[in-house]
Design a protein that fits this description.
The structure holds 2 protein chains of 2 kinds. Chain A is α/β, with parallel strands linked by helices. Chain A contains 12 helices and 9 strands. The model of chain A has no long low-confidence stretch (mean pLDDT 97). The chains are: A alpha/beta, B alpha/beta. At the A-B interface, helix 3, helix 5 and strand 6 of A face helix 1, helix 8 and strand 11 of B. Chain B: One of its GO terms (molecular function) is tryptophan synthase activity.
Chain lengths: 260, 393
């Protein structure tokens, strides 16, 4: 069977909605159900975060969700078991995203093989250096048919964007601003100029825009320039307040896509 | 030069630059330019002039007679405690603020634990007229109130880190987040030999003035630049890096790092990284790190806020792994007793970080001809509250 992430981008190159949430948040048992509700609500892609004690690229919302998840006993082996569980019912592509250290302790090669076996389609490891990936892990990931998405940011040079694009498979993760996760407000003109520039580069991969996508307006704006967008902090804030995950996730996804 | 850093920033299996893309351009700019900038004669001239006229270098190498008598060796103290601001930290902040100027940056951020690096950064920012923001764990702000006020008097903004255990590790996380959010006009002055390459090497170079002076001073004192032992405390490890630097390739010099055992290495309240740590990645480099089996970072403990860090610099991890340096674990109690001993025998109240290095003496068997240099990295003024609370003097 072809990698679900590759299949998705073959079929769809506009308005791809990717939702990020932290494994084990709000509680340990919610990881599987949230994936099911997201599929039912019409998300295209699921990114599940591996919690870490020191998430330096994240703003307060995702930091707090990491802490709650860890305090609740979430671990990488538990997450892999949950992915297996999700895969029994959910057909959406699944990407696992996390800081490098928990993956190193688990064993990077072991993680790659077991993530694939559990049913994941891609990985994002933002603090894994490009060169280290190319030297040690790229061929294994190709052999396992597991995608790897690297990040680019507004300060990434054009030359480096092409390098990152060449090493990435599935999609390229375009960070929308020089910021940590969870920015609020509308896009600034320089961000739109940056999106415009990206859309005109001749990248081999589609790119999804992430960081600061929090409502219908920012989602649809980002979709004008990229293949789609990634929503994380806003989704996690909603989960935190929700008393009915199924209903609220449905409402959240519908509003993101269609507005109110 | 088997202990030197490689072009890619590795010391053996440790080091590198493990950073998200948002930090890459800044760190890469620094990596590309730091050696050129530091190597320029105008830079060296200004750096050395400030070290002399502002910091008060060279710091003395003091033969501690009564300590020597007790431990039956010639014991010299490298008096970094006499540096302006009270510790070796300022050697690095002078160097880095000049680098920041050369890079065209107008704003400075820093992290601090005990507050010594924060004060040293606030000091050079005042000197150079640069904006300064220091991140400090909320818990450390309460423990080290006088240093918080010193930074404020110097014009710095002190921002409490409210995440995690609210100590040095969390302050470092917050400083990195600030840098991600302000990538163009801001330079991050890291205070120890930690962080992504080139920081460990750059900070070690700025601190290497310590061992450079020790060599010259020993020639004057004993006619030979090489002591038998160099002893320094290690949190992240910047004072040890500076004290070891010019001796690392001289294998006849025994290098000893003193780590904080806290309440004992098996107590669950410790910061003895070489004993308790495993290879891992935190704050941009691969190094020895105190962590759970799942790779979550463990909160360290030490009576001294400056040693309260879950990792050590990658250079020290390499010195440990190769056996080039020995690392010893010193408990809170042993350090406090050694601090009192130095006060009574030599009239110097050391910083509690430094007291960990002094406590090594009691664990050693020296020959009477041995020449021992202890890096007296900081003075104890900031620690009076801790001495008073401990009370056994």
């Amino acid at each position: 069977m072809e990698n679900r992430l590759k299949t998705l981008f073959k079929k769809k190159s506009k308005n791809v909605l990717s939702i990020f949430y932290t494994a084990g948040f709000p509680t340990h048992k919610d990881t599987v159900a949230i994936a099911q509700y997201l599929e039912a609500a019409g998300a295209d892609l699921i990114e599940i975060g591996i919690p870490f004690s020191d998430p330096v690229a994240d703003g307060p919302t995702i930091q707090a969700s990491n802490k709650v998840a860890l305090d609740g006993g979430m671990t990488l082996p538990i997450l892999l078991a949950q992915v297996k569980e999700i895969r029994k019912q959910v057909k959406l592509p699944i990407v696992l995203m996390g800081y490098l250290n928990p993956v190193i302790q688990y064993g990077v090669e072991r993680f790659i093989k077991e993530a694939k076996a559990a049913g994941a389609d891609g990985l994002i490891l933002p603090d894994l250096p490009l060169v280290e990936f190319q030297t040690h892990y790229q061929s294994l990931m190709q052999a396992e048919d597991l995608c790897m998405s690297f990040l680019i940011s507004p300060t990434t040079s054009e030359e480096r964007i092409y390098k990152i694009d060449a090493a990435s498979t599935g999609f390229v993760y375009a960070v929308s601003a020089s910021s940590t996760t969870g920015a609020k407000g509308d896009f600034q003109p320089e961000q739109l100029a940056y999106f415009e520039k990206l859309s005109k580069l001749n990248m081999q991969n589609q790119h999804l825009i992430g960081f600061g996508i929090h409502d219908h307006q920012t989602f649809s704006k980002a979709c004008e320039y990229g293949a789609g967008a990634i929503v994380g902090s806003a989704f996690i804030s909603m989960l935190e307040k929700s008393n009915d995950l199924e209903k609220d996730i449905h409402l959240f996804v519908t509003r993101l896509k269609k507005g109110n | 030069m088997k202990y030197a850093v490689t072009d890619e920033g590795y010391y053996g299996n440790f080091g590198g630059a493990y950073i998200p893309e948002m930090l890459y351009p800044n760190v890469e700019e620094l990596r590309e330019r730091y050696l050129d900038i530091i190597g320029q004669s105008s830079f060296q001239e200004e750096f050395n002039k400030l070290l002399k006229d502002f910091v008060g270098r060279p710091t003395p190498l003091f033969l501690a007679n009564r300590l020597s008598e007790k431990y039956k060796a010639s014991i010299y103290l490298k008096r970094e405690d006499l540096c302006h601001t009270g510790a070796h930290k300022v050697n690095n902040t002078i160097g880095q603020i000049l680098v920041a100027k050369a890079l065209g940056k107008s704003k400075i951020i820093a992290e601090t634990g005990a507050g010594q690096h924060g004060v040293a950064t606030a000091t050079v920012c005042a000197l150079m007229g640069m904006d300064c923001i220091v991140y400090m764990g909320k818990h450390d702000m309460e423990r080290q109130k006088p240093n918080v006020e010193r930074m404020r008097i110097l014009g710095a903004k002190v921002v409490p880190a409210l995440s995690g255990s609210m100590t040095l590790k969390d302050a470092t996380n917050e400083a990195m987040r600030h840098w991600i959010n302000n990538p163009t006009d801001t330079h991050y002055i890291i205070g120890s030999v930690v962080g992504p390459h080139p920081y460990p090497d750059m900070v070690a170079r700025f601190q290497s003035v310590i061992s450079q002076e020790i060599k010259a001073q020993l020639i004057q004192e004993i006619g030979n630049p090489y002591p038998d032992y160099v002893i320094a405390c290690v949190g992240g490890g910047s004072n040890a890096a500076g004290a070891f630097y010019h001796f690392i390739n001289e294998e006849q010099v025994t290098l000893i790092g003193a780590e904080a055992a806290g309440k004992g290495v098996d107590s669950g309240e410790s910061a003895a990284t070489t004993v308790l740590g495993k290879p891992g990645v935190l704050h941009g480099s691969k190094t020895l790190l105190m962590q759970t089996a799942d790779g979550q970072v463990i909160e360290p403990y030490s009576i001294s806020a400056g040693l309260d860090y879950p990792g050590i610099g990658p250079m020290h991890a390499h010195l440990f792994e190769t056996g080039r340096a020995q690392f010893m674990s010193i408990t809170d109690e042993e350090a406090m007793l050694a601090g009192i001993e130095l006060s009574r025998l030599e009239g110097i109240i050391p910083a509690i970080e430094t007291a960990h290095a002094l406590a090594v003496l009691d664990k050693m068997e020296f020959d009477k001809d041995d020449v021992v240099v202890i890096n007296l990295s900081g003075r104890g003024d900031k620690d009076l509250d801790t001495y008073i609370k401990w009370g056994k003097y």
